Amino acid sequence: MRRLLKILRNVVLLVVAGLVILAGVLAFNVVTRSSRQLQVTAIPRATVDTHGAAKRLSEAIRFQTISNFLNPEQDAEALRGLEAHILASFPAFHAAAKREVIGGHSLLYTWEGSDPKAQPIALLAHQDVVPIAPGTEKDWQQKPFEGAIADGYIWGRGSWDDKGNLYSMLEAAEQMAKEGFRPKRTIYFAFGHDEEVAGTRGAKPIAAALATRGVRLDFVLDEGLLIADGVMKGLDRPAALIGLSEKGYATLVLTAHSTPGHSSMPPRETAIGMMSAALARLEDNRLPMHIRGTVAEMFDTLAPEMSPVNRVVLSNLWLLKPLLLREFAKSGPTEAMVRTTTALTIFNAGDKDNVLPGIAEATVNFRLLPGDTQDSVTDHVRTTIRNDKISIEPFPGNTNPPPVTGTSGKSYQALNKTIREVFPDVVVAPGLMVAATDSRHYAEIADNIFRFSPVRANSEDLKRFHGTNERLSIEGYADMIRFYRRLIENTAG
After folding, report:
1. For a 10 Å CB count at each end of the chain, is N or C smaller?
2. Which residue among 161, 171, 195, 222 is the active-site one?
3. Active-site choice (75, 83, 128, 174)
4. CA distance 324 to 305
5. What is the pLDDT of residues 138-175, one digit of tens each?
6. Residue 195 catalytic?
7. Is 125 helix (H, G, I), strand (E, B) or coil?
8. Which secondary-structure segment (H or E) carries 415?
9. Residues 98-110: pLDDT tens digits?
10. Is-catalytic flag, 128?
């Protein structure tokens, strides 16, 4: 009995010692992670013609530049109208920069630098917008294409995505051109016209044209992650996330084939039944979650800025990663950061209630984490559905994840500095862009690709993205203009 008690006592002591050591390791990892935030000197807020800028953006919103993959000329007239508006609104910039039309409606401006040896940069935005979801028009507080200015906001489709970025770039350049500024290195302004439908007619030809001219860009800045205000749990400051990586885009069309016939004599296996089973398997067997690459670096950067509990978790992912992943799996937006997502988007089969269709077709969209590829996802689908009677075909416009940009380079530091100067209350960290942008088409000619929109957004604002009541605050728009001005000064001044 004494021997047993002694063994139990030793076990308890070992457990206690282990817990103490573990607690010590957890605490050590917390206290040794110091803030990575750049210390910058406050700068005066640049003067902006807020009223005039808001008016010009509101006018741009009225051009219904809704792109359509199957009907590329659907918005041709609207694009021509927007093009004329840009020409009329920014005369000093047009006098300073060379203008080209590429791919029918995309715009490429070259603002020549004074130092021909300096590596050029490119600022990207897109002219097109997504449509209004049918039946939701009545839910808008202001008409979606009226460009109303009310309650401190510019309202309408495109105010945020992405005419806000496009026009704020031009407002900044116009103001600087009027003041006689000339960049030391060449700046390209590239405005595609079909980003919302893959960018293959706009951004891709622009990048190809630059490639044929031997252009090699130091960096590209496109729309992307935002200044998230109150969105991240455990962080009491806004987080400005710079997209250093972007998910790939892979849409697969699945087609089930069976013998058509009369519904009174159905076989054991039908096209709709096979497809339904296949889709259920895909949803039940999603690709695994990972914390790696840019997402891991994001957590590492944010950890010192977090509240105590969250700081402990993010500083000790070697142990607490499963806990974090379990929390991320509860929400679509957070899960998208750590998983190649599976989205069932289209299903077509049958046209009469008493006829068995010979074909059932489904479209499945995957957003690929860096590290996954179109081939690996296609293999996953094939092994998951386990049915040779279902064919799998890729959709045009599919792309693998583009290369990941690092945080150690001068261009990232300049962007980081600019954000901290214009938005001194924010925490800056790298991040993963879960959607696709035009920037992926520049991967072959750019050393660095950044995806960041200088827009403050809370959780309610995020619902407006591609949704109802899209709007941009007038004061926030003025800060966007200040941001692009300061970025040009810091990187090309």
Report:
1. N
2. 195
3. 128
4. 17
5. 999 999 999 999 999 999 999 999 999 999 999 999 99
6. yes
7. strand
8. helix 410-422
9. 999 999 999 999 9
10. yes
